[in-house]
Predict the structure.
Amino acid sequence: MSRNARFGLGALIALAVLIFGFAVGRPVKVLPRMAPAPPFELLDASGTPVQAPKEGNPITFYLFGAARDEQEMQRIKRFYEEASRALAEAGYGDKVAFSFITVDPDHDTPETLRQATAALDLRQGPPFTFLTGSWVAIRMVVGTGFGVYFEPARDKASPPAHDRAVVVVDGNHVIRARYAFDQVDTKTLVRDVNLLLKEAEAKGATRWIYEGAHLFLCYPR
């Protein structure tokens, strides 16, 4: 075997060992790029249009529900307070934001959402934006875009049925995680924000390492 052939074979073996070690050892972990988050233009609680995607957006936790479901709103308040506290303790309090998109747009006007946010008093932590819009816009964003099931309210006394989910969207407006609302814990939230921030900060050759992590599905277990 010629010297060049031996060199080529050695390089291939080294590459194979590197790939095997990367795939098995998983030295870098990433969250999956699940799908592009839906673009939208909705109204916040002051009636101001809010658009996405927008340059410079933080990591955002999207939640879904109806303002007239008082028990659900209290659960969202507790989730926000616990998550905010954990993220702040980890040093990520200024790196994230929260958004609530109603699944009850015929009831949840901007004024209704303004009253709901005032009653919940969600000012001690990262920004929390409450959003509404037309029925068609909400259906396209929530149902089609985020893949969160909901159905129209059966009557004026009952809120709509819907999936209770938390969807994590990164600064590039890509969905990176989805949790069942009742199952997610603050430890997981902190871990995932840490992974997203490290990936976003990767430069040069390190960027390629993260692309390799996506290629080999190096996801948290």
The chain is about 40% helix and 20% strand.
